[in-house]
Write a structure and sequence with these properties.
The complex is a heterodimer. Chain A is mainly alpha-helical. In chain A, about 75% of the residues lie in helices and about 0% in strands. Chain A has helices at about 1-25, 30-55, 60-70, 75-100, 110-125, 130-160, 165-185, 210-215, 220-240, 240-250, 255-260, 265-285, 300-315, 320-335, 345-360, 360-385, and strands spanning about 190, 195. In chain A, about 50% of the residues are buried. Chain B is an alpha/beta fold. Chain B has three domains: about 5-235, Rossmann fold (3-Layer(aba) Sandwich); about 240-335 and about 420-505, 3-Layer(aba) Sandwich (Rossmann fold), CATH 3.40.50; about 340-420, no CATH class. Classes of the chains: A mainly alpha, B alpha/beta.
């Protein structure tokens, strides 16, 4: 008996030390957020595994492995694709998170994304008169502009007519969808596939060297644009008087007003910037060679809604959103490779969605983190005595 | 004579404050018993204990001679105790009858049976002349009518003991008169009524006896018809000034703030400011005294620009600022210690440092091309922490929410004083603070005045009004009803002005 204890003692010590350190980490604000998010993700993956066990028991373990190792399944191709999937949802997540930090709930990321996508495709297909090097940039700017306008509208409605942004953005999602389908059919239609025509190759966002790292993947510079957006929003929120004002309005409208901040204009700015970000995401998805086309079926695009979950999981912090957006991209990419097993496409969709939305419940895990580590810190103390 | 309610030696502690200290209240059957006291004297706490919302730490409650435990409002209901809260608890899209039966509905096979209820409500309404339609929707009827619905709710539940928490605060004078008639009629029917108020005029008009609380302590009970309004005011306000503020003589300078004919209406169309005109000069502390809710908040909102929906004119240093926005007013030399430090004074989720630049983050001192200068902000904050003795767990990095109320207030005071404004508007700057902090803030105010600045102090505390101010104007129902000097006026007299019992020259 005593021998056995001795064998395990070193391992137990290491475990305790590790948990103790995590316990201390969990005491800090950032630590608590990060640990609870990770816990939520683990729970989500486990739940996904449970679903696989129910649907196709024999493939469940293989499926779990694919989900975990998804981005490394096919070397540089799968890793590049993972980043490609992540890029737009990082940006829509940023859009929702930014609005949230400034006290607004932007459910309209989807609509802003859609109009952004259309603007990008329109410029990408029709404005061939643009010089080669500039074409994609103009297309991206057009998408940002269109998204900004689509954010400006609910911003103005909220600021000056007290229309709640949740209501107006939801309605604008549908308006955007119908308008864009009409626009696609009128200006950039490929009637053979009932979708938008392909953008010319000059309008595709350049690879910016990513093709050297991921030669087999269709990833392009959109990922860099996403990271750039994260950095810009981080700086705006953390370092500038502008961000200081917007956050003050978000945290406490009355105090901001007291400080002489024009909270109405502030609301308009916030929604416009949020819209611009979602518009950018639209450009990132559709200015690719990979054959992304705007479909003319009457359904809302999912990237905008993913943004809500990304922002929630990332706790609206730009860096958190970058991390959670990468996670979403990872899971979506893994879902793609699940097709190699006998899961039907719908089941994969359900599994991916389950993991994602389960993960967004990180707030639920906050108290759990506190409990687990509080207990453990005590245990270690007990050992020391 | 038998008492229907006896609350004996009740003590109730809240964190950091003793709200009721050995309080005794005895109410006879069929009487209207007033409970009088200043804000924070412990009236509402005592009534909440009787209604089962709080449990006392010590003391005994007897109802009809028997000792009882009132653990929640349902217990109170069973003892036939009812309460009309200051803020009505009605479902706005329900009808009068639906609101009255809510929680006590007649049900048959899972369906509501309203006929009987409506019949009974009609009878009760006739009996007391309520003149109310059981089928009207709450949101369509006046505030006065809504209050009658609350009263009907109690009658419908056969309440014998009725508590009214400041029932006249929201009513027009005519509605007040009718309410008093109703209360008298109910007392005649044998109901016992406890009326919480700090309006002496109303007590004189309607109550039989009056118990007085001051700072949580029981002062005494008097028969209203044997006691003058002045005597009751003295009981309420208590002894003379607690501590004297040392103040030298100072020569008044030029006009700093001038207000002319301010008028304002609230959302319900009630006039909340009525032709308010006054002036504050350099080196003067002008105090606006009055009971809460008589228009002081609106006056401040108008002057600071928080609510621009007013008519009249406002000048600073004889320059008109009537149409300027909040920021412009701040920059023209206005400091503002707001009434509600959580709502207006601080962004609670910002750190102390971030809160310290709330009024000046756009200043060259703290930003460069739109980028915040964190070193300068941190230095500034640490300087203020030192000078104003602001205590917090993590210094400048402390999140404002986690600071104590007193230190939050000190932070606001530090921020506003440091900007060295020509006009300081201090709204209840000592609300909820301990004696030491109060003294400190008073000293700061006087210090500012001695630097030839103008101070507009809004206060509900008579002690503060008498000791700090150079001149006092009294507000009553949105009007200035007196303009007096503290050396020529007694607290009792002020109390009469504040409760509307007396009017002076303005």
């Amino acid at each position: 008996m005593s021998d056995k204890n001795n064998i395990f003692k070193p391992a137990k010590n290491i475990w305790n030390k590790g948990m103790n350190r995590l316990g201390k980490f969990s005491k800090t604000d950032a630590g608590e957020s990060i640990l609870s998010s990770i816990l939520a993700i683990i729970a989500g993956v486990m739940f996904g595994f449970l679903l696989m066990l129910i649907f196709v028991p024999s493939d469940a373990f293989g499926g779990l492995w694919i989900i975990i190792s998804g981005a490394f399944q096919k070397g540089n191709e799968s890793f590049g694709n993972f980043l490609m999937y992540a890029a737009p949802i990082i940006v829509t997540g940023l859009s929702v998170g930014f609005a949230f930090k400034t006290g607004l709930f932007n459910i309209g990321a989807t609509g802003q994304f859609t109009v952004g996508a259309f603007a990008a495709v329109f410029v990408g297909v029709r404005w061939t008169f643009l010089p080669d090097g500039m074409h994609w940039m103009v297309a991206v700017l057009a998408a940002i502009f269109a998204g900004a306008v689509w954010g400006l509208i609910p911003g103005l409605l909220k600021a000056f007519f007290n229309v709640h942004e949740v209501v107006s953005t939801i309605m604008l999602n549908y308006t955007a969808m119908y308008l864009v389908i009409l626009g696609v059919k009128t200006y950039v239609y490929n009637s053979l596939y009932s979708e938008s025509a392909s953008v010319v190759s000059e309008a595709v966002i350049p690879k910016m060297g990513l093709n050297l790292i991921f030669p087999d993947s269709s990833i392009n510079g959109g990922f860099f644009l996403a990271v750039l957006a994260v950095i810009v929003i981080y700086i705006v929120l953390k370092k500038t008087t502008f961000g200081y004002q917007l956050k003050a309005v978000g945290y406490n409208k009355d105090a901001a007003k007291y400080a002489g901040v024009n909270e109405k204009i502030s609301t308009v700015y916030s929604m416009t910037i949020a819209g611009a970000l979602s518009g950018l995401a639209g450009a990132i998805v559709f200015l690719t060679k990979a054959g992304a086309h705007i479909s003319t079926t009457y359904s809302l695009m999912s990237q905008g809604f993913d943004g809500i979950a990304v922002a929630l999981l990332g706790l609206s912090h730009p860096l958190g959103i970058l991390a959670s957006g990468l996670f979403f991209g990872y899971i979506k990419n893994s879902g793609f490779y699940l097709q190699s097993l006998s899961f039907s496409k719908e089941v994969i969709g359900i599994i991916v969605a389950t993991i994602i939305y389960f993960s967004a419940l990180s707030m639920l895990f906050r108290n759990l983190v506190k409990k687990i580590f509080a207990k453990h810190v005590e245990d270690v103390k007990g050992d020391d005595q | 004579m038998e008492y229907v309610i006896e609350m004996l030696n009740i003590t109730k502690d809240f964190p950091g404050i003793r709200a009721n200290d050995n309080v005794t209240l005895q109410v006879k059957k069929g009487e209207i018993h007033a409970l009088l006291g200043e804000n924070g004297a412990g009236k509402s706490t005592l009534m909440s204990i009787l209604f089962g919302l709080y449990q006392p730490n010590d003391g005994m409650i007897k109802v009809r001679g028997e000792e009882v435990q009132i653990r929640n409002p349902n217990d109170a209901n069973d003892l036939h105790i009812g309460m009309v809260h200051q803020h009505f608890k009605l479902v706005h899209n329900f009808t009068v009858a639906e609101n009255i039966v809510l929680g006590k509905e007649d049900v048959k096979n899972g369906f509501l049976k309203m006929d009987k209820a409506i019949e009974r409500i009609k009878n009760l309404s006739e009996q007391y002349n309520f003149n109310i339609d059981p089928n009207a929707i709450i949101s369509d009827i006046t505030v006065g009518m809504q209050q009658r619905v609350e009263i009907l709710k109690m009658l419908y539940r056969d309440a014998e003991i009725m508590i009214f928490d400041e029932p006249t605060a929201v009513l027009t004078p005519q509605e007040i008169e009718e309410l008093m008639k109703i209360m008298k009629a109910m007392a005649k029917e044998g109901k016992s009524i406890i009326l919480i108020t700090h309006k002496l005029k109303e007590i004189k008009a309607v109550a039989d006896r009056c118990s007085v609380l001051r700072k949580g302590k029981y002062i005494g009970t008097v028969n209203v018809n044997e006691t003058t309004v002045e005597q009751m005011a003295e009981m309420m306000v208590g002894r003379k000034v607690l501590f004297n503020v040392v103040k030298g003589e100072i020569e008044l300078g030029d006009s700093v703030l001038k207000v002319e004919d301010l008028n304002m209406h609230n959302k319900d169309g009630k006039q909340v400011l009525k032709d308010v005109s006054f002036e504050v000069k350099a080196g003067e502390i002008l105090c606006v005294a009055g009971i809460e809710g008589n228009g002081q908040t609106h006056l401040v909102e108008a002057i600071t620009g928080l609510n621009p929906h007013y008519t009249g004119k406002i000048y600073i240093h004889n320059k008109e600022i009537t149409h300027e926005n909040i920021r412009q007013r701040t920059l023209s030399g206005m400091g503002h210690i707001p009434e509600d430090r959580h709502k207006h004074g601080l962004v609670l989720d910002y750190t102390l440092a971030e809160n310290m630049i709330l009024q000046s983050y756009f200043d060259k001192e703290f930003q460069n091309y739109g980028f915040l200068k964190f070193d300068a902000i941190s230095e500034h904050t640490n300087d203020l922490i030192q000078r104003f003795d602001i205590r917090s767990g993590r210094g400048e990095k402390t999140v404002a929410r986690s600071m104590s109320g007193g230190n939050q207030q000190k932070a606001i005071v530090a921020r506003e004083f440091d900007r060295n404004p020509d006009l300081m508007i201090a709204v209840q700057p000592t609300r909820g603070l301990d004696v030491g902090a109060i003294e400190y803030i008073h000293k700061q105010l006087v210090g500012l005045r001695d630097q030839n600045k103008a101070i507009l102090l809004i206060s509900l505390e008579l002690d503060e009004v008498m000791s700090v101010s150079d001149r006092i104007v009294v507000m009553y129902e949105g009007e200035l009803v007196a303009n007096v000097y503290p050396e020529n006026v007694t607290e009792n007299e002020l109390g009469l002005y504040m409760s509307g019992s007396k009017r002076g020259e303005v």
